[in-house]
Amino acid sequence: MKSAPLVAVIQFPGSNCEYETARAVRSSGMESCIYRWNQWRELKNSRPDAYVLPGGFSFQDRIRAGAVAAKERIMDLVFSEAADGKPVLGICNGAQILVESGMVPGWEKGRIETALAANHISGRSGYLSGWIFLRTTARAQQICPWLGMTGNGVIPLPIAHAEGRFVFSEENHYRAESSAALKYCDAKGTESSDYPINPNGSFLNLAGVMNEHGNVLAMMPHPERAFWMWQLPPWIPGEWGDRRDKSLSSGSHAAAKGPGSMFFMSLADYFRGER
Amino acid sequence: MNLRDELKEAIRHRSLAMTLEEAEKLAGYVGRMPTPLELHLFDTMWSEHCSYKSSRSLLKLLPTHASSVVVGPGEDAGIVKFTEHDGYSWDLVVAHESHNHPSQVLPVEGAATGIGGIVRDVYCMGARVTGSLDLLRFGDPLGNSGEKTRAICRGVVEGIWKYGNALGVPNLGGDTRFHRGYDDNCLVNVVSLGFVRHDRIVHSFVPAEAHEEQYVLILVGKPTDDTGFGGATFASADLEDESEKGAVQVADPFLKRVLSEANMNVLDFLFERGIKFGFKDLGAGGIACVTSELAAHGNLGIEVNLDLVPVSIPDLPSEVIACAETQERYGLAVPKRIAAEVLDIYNEKYEMPRLFPGAGATVIGTFTAEPFYRVLHCGREVANTPVEYITEGIIYDRDWKPSPASVIEPDSRPCDPPEDLKRMLLSLDGASRSPVWSYYDSEVQGSTHFRPGEADACVTVPIPGCRAGLAVSGDGNPWIGELDPFLAGAHAVGEAVRNVVATGATPIAATDCLNYGNPEKADVFWQFRRGVEGIAAACRELGFEGEDPLPIVSGNVSFYNQSSQGGAIPPSPIVAVFGRIDDFTKSTDISLKTPGDLVILVGERMDELGGSLYYRTCIDHRGGRVPAFRGKLEREMALFVLRCCEAGISKAVHDISDGGMILAAAEMAITSRPDARRGILFDTDEMDPVLLYSETPGYLIEMSQESWNAIESKPGFLSVAGKVTDEFSIAAPGWKMDLLEILEDHASRLDRIIWREEITE
Amino acid sequence: MKDVSIIVSLKSPDPAAMTAMSTFRRIYPAKCPDSLLRYDHWRFMNPGQGTETVSGIVSRYHDIVNPNKQTWSYIDEFSKPSGPSDDGMVWIDVLVTDRIDSVSENWTAILRRSSCEIEGVLCSVLWRFGFASGISCDDARNRVLDLTASTYRDHGLLANPVSQKIDLPAPLLI
User: For chain C, how far is it from start to end, CA to CA, in angstroms?
Assistant: First the structure.
């Protein structure tokens, strides 16, 4: 019997957020193990309870971010595990891989129904790093194991990507909202399509998209980079800014958890069956 | 043809950088006409870039010894003690290089391979690389060569993000400056840092065990091609025309990332088995340099078989295979008995051959007891020379001639604080660097505490679970350089030290990169000499650990930075300083926090505005009287700032540099929380350019009135400058500058000029 | 006036083309082309002086073509027949274009603001598939379409039709 849930972090050639992502999982009271792209047999045998595809540049984003990794053999396994309801989280490049694998929104099994296209910003192209704010949709809070504890508040998280704009074909626009999990908003919680509130021109201000059952979540922001309070910039406004100031003045800054921890703690909570 | 003519012909025909005298010296060593491979190998080893032949005699002036130094200059990177954690000693590994010439010609690739090369230097000491920063100097983007300068700037930033972000090494800022002296020759200096467990430091020579047991040389990485051929000598030649510069390599962060993961696995394997080994990255001079140096520094010989080297282009001549500078390669010296297991990790476990055609690990050589460097190719011996000569190097004593700039101060200094502040905030050097940083990933690895712009130095928490924080900053001011080369060196150290100290970290080590024109010119060599003396003087005064100086543990010299017309760049010594703070949660950023708090000025303002931002942007004058370097005072001020931080009374600290006290104040206000905007109200109504704009070294500190009152025996360099207000403005009785109205312009200025090409003024 | 297009290629082997080729070999061995080339494709809309304007832009902005690492040539878009060539290969071009693209928009803005006489610019990626002889042009076209349009995880690679447009030349009439 396993003592704690095992979360597998998949390392593709070119991944670069696997270590801090695994640390975030462990700091949330779960076990984590990093599996190399060609360790699909080991991965299968260890029967993980959940999967994370971390950020990075799998295959150097050649051809299209996520496109080549989506075709790796190890993704067959992730695909079928997701179909069985296992929680799967793709962060940044991991989200791009999930999109290119047709795992979100997943209306038709395996069909690629969305794209994470190049950021669309007037007068600017290429990579964009910075902090954004987002909120979790009500439906996602109910059905997504990664979001159970995120609440209705405004969540500051960092982004770092060149291709983060969710796009749907026109005939699917009507149902995109049903897959919305995370939406960009301003520091006060008001949604907007204006740059930089929506940092990439994403359709419906989407920062994260889930599948129908909510067990698969593709998100562009990096929760593992905001796991601890000390990872937040000093200027973060609003509730989390106040919390940061408080942890600093109370001397608990090193151990205080930040907004990104909620995503991993939600999963731990989900496994405890407390929901 | 006699030997002399034959050598002369070879130098011409092969475009070698070596002199005829050097070639004759080589012929004397081998006792015959050197082979093509030997010519190219020694051409590289004796290049300015590898041999420091012009600079070595002066570099001895730099303090490199301190009790904290584990490895000083000489290996690929310097190492200093950092902290103890979890029963292990952790050391900081640092390296500093330039990639100026390649970046001028191929900005994207030049800047990318700049990072690629410098991180290899840190990796190959066995370290995990946890940060890199670029110190960038571009021409005037609005000047005569503006269009070219803007394209170079865009390209360099693109190269940095495309490589660094993909590699997964957080970018820790650095700085960007503009000066028309760089119109034809930009500077791209790169610093990389990492951490290694003290018991796992790796050295770049074959271990002593190789005298007892057969060792082999494994080459791992990208297949060899011809793209980098001549790169090392290229870095040491004048920039003449751009057509010949096929020498820049193509960087591949993807392959590097996989290679780094595989290396980590291999090093773990070797350490766990208790096997001694040598490890070195391939840079200038390629296979020839790495194999000969691994052998020579271990007092052994080596026999290399070029037929075993994987190549991506058929039928390359032996000197190209041996000396090409193909990126993303390492050499590893291991016992023959475990070579197969090592190859397996690279080729099977990490599937390098599948991920990149022709990539992988191969045994290409055998270490020998006879101290000869022998290379075989197609059944022939293509090099055979005693190893001792390869690393011996050469040295020149260059002439120097003082050529100080004349001191001309302006006749009048009008002072209109709101208008002057606005001009400075919107000037090229005063505008926000956020458009540059927005391309960089500063947070990968999850250990970043302060990102670029939030504090005077980036602060990271590099060892998971350990509270020790690392602060790093790099600096160098060309405007001081052109007025006083000695002070340029001294202030480069001083400014970087202040930036690190402002965060609350104690400086523990420094690196330097000395960027100058042609050292064969006496006035340029004088500038170089003064710069080294300035750095040495400042390092001797600014040590913070016992009686030790601030040690320079790694560095680089870059000469021949000039245009085809021969105009040298402004003297540009660039220094990076590394600091440690035992508890990172005590580190201070620059943002104003609490209305009513006092703003304390550390460091009396002096009338020394030469080269200041105010002179340049407000009265269009260069001036002449540059801030003096007052080492003792500088150190006392730093110790005061560190004590305040330790006591937890400083809420924000910002050093005073470009734009003086007024610009420092504005930057502290601009970084305040957008939902709790703050400003500063100065006490004095005096509109004095010296008080407001002088760049005399110093700091501004925010602290409460109670904390200020509680400081016993206040040093003479302290005074109260003003108060923190809840208005988003910089003001004094009699004037006020509202910051909101220029905030957007200040933030987007560089973006509009460089990336959007909006240059209509 | 008409548009002028250029293709730009690296002097060294193109890493994306190498990755695409090795991916094809691994997952679609039966459909894999024998050769695959990749180019940046820039379409200049209504240049005032035709190719003269375009060559001026190309030599002026090294971001578009850096002569130290790239070569370029004009391409008469799709009027040049893809199909059996002198080397006995069947060559099929496919053009992949982002439906919305900041790079094109930004360059359009920059070029319009500068004194270049140009209406706009559109960047795409041109993939050139080469098949050894023994394949009909129609078969080759179908293979190219299959390999290009990524509609399912196990189907296609080079373009995601949700966000990208795929243009193939008209079938060749022989």
Answer: 30
Whether the per-residue pLDDT at B414 is higher than 60: the answer is yes
Q: What is the residue-wise DSSP string for C36-89? A: EEEEEEEEEES-TTTHHHHHHHHHH-TTT--TTTEEEEEE-TTTSPPEE-TTS-
Res. B40: pLDDT tops 60: yes
In terms of CA atoms, which chain A residue is nearest residue B447? A231
Query: Residue ranges of the domains in chain A?
Result: 6-229+259-271
The neighbours of chain B, by the rule of 3 or more Cβ pairs under 8 Å, are A, C
Higher pLDDT, C12 or B648: B648
Cβ atoms of A253 and A230 closer than 8 Å: yes
Cβ-Cβ contacts under 8 Å, C25 against chain B: none
A17 is catalytic: no
CATH 3.30.230.10 assigned to domain B65-201+432-581? The reply is no
pLDDT tens digits along B83-120: 999 999 999 999 999 999 889 988 998 999 899 889 99
Average pLDDT, stretch B39-68? 88
Catalytic residue among B40, B96, B99, B621: B99
d(CA B77, CA B96): 8
Mean pLDDT in residue range B330-339 = 96
* Residue range(s) of every CATH 3.30.1330.10 domain in chain B: 65-201+432-581
Spatial distance between the Cα atoms of B422 and B387, rounded to a whole number of angstroms:
62
Q: Which of B271, B309, B306 is nearest to B35 (CA)?
A: B306
Structure-derived torsion over alpha carbons of residues C93, C95, C96, C100, reported in degrees to the nearest 10: 180
Residue (of B114, B174, B138, B98) closest to B750 by Cα position: B138
C174 part of a folded domain: no
- CATH for A6-229+259-271 is 3.40.50.880
**Cis bond before residue B414 (omega within 30° of 0):** no
Confidence bin at B760 (pLDDT 50/70/90): low
- Is residue C173 one of the residues assigned to a domain? no
Query: Residue B239: is its pLDDT beyond 50?
Result: no
ipTM score here? Answer: 0.96
Question: Quick one: pLDDT band at residue B569, thresholds 50, 70, 90?
Answer: very high
pLDDT of residue A2: 57
Task: Report the candidate in B754, B749, B652, B666 with the shortest Cα–Cα distance to residue B703.
Answer: B652
Distance of CA B584 to the CA centre of its chain: 24
CA-based torsion, B140, B497, B443, B168: positive or negative:
positive
Give the minimum alpha-carbon distance from B324 to chain A in angstroms, rounded to a whole number: 24
Side chain identity, residue B735: W
The pair of three-digit structure tokens given for residue B760, joined into one six-digit string: 């209509």
Q: What is the mean pLDDT of chain B?
A: 93
pLDDT digit string (tens) for A44-59?
A: 999 999 999 999 999 9
Partners of B360 in beta bridges: B221
Selected residue of C126, C162, C166 to mutate for chain A interface (largest A Cβ count, 10 A): C162
The C-alpha atoms of residue C148 and residue C94 are separated, in whole angstroms, by: 8
Q: Contacts of residue A24 in chain B, CB cutoff 8 Å?
A: 446
Q: Name the nearest CA neighbour of B267 among B258, B278, B256, B257.
A: B278
* Residue in chain A nearest C19 by alpha carbon: A62
Q: Is B705 on the interface with A (CB under 8 A)?
A: no
Give catalytic status of residue A222 as yes or no. yes
Residue A1: the pLDDT is 46
Domains in chain C: how many in total? 1
Report pLDDT digits (tens) over A117-149. 999 998 888 999 999 999 999 999 999 999 999
The mean of the pLDDT values for chain A is 95
Residue range(s) defining the domain that contains residue C130: 4-167
Interface of C with B (CB under 8 A): 12-13, 15, 18, 22, 60-63, 66-69, 106, 109-110, 113-114
Is residue B159 within 8 Å of residue B436, measured between CB atoms?
A: no
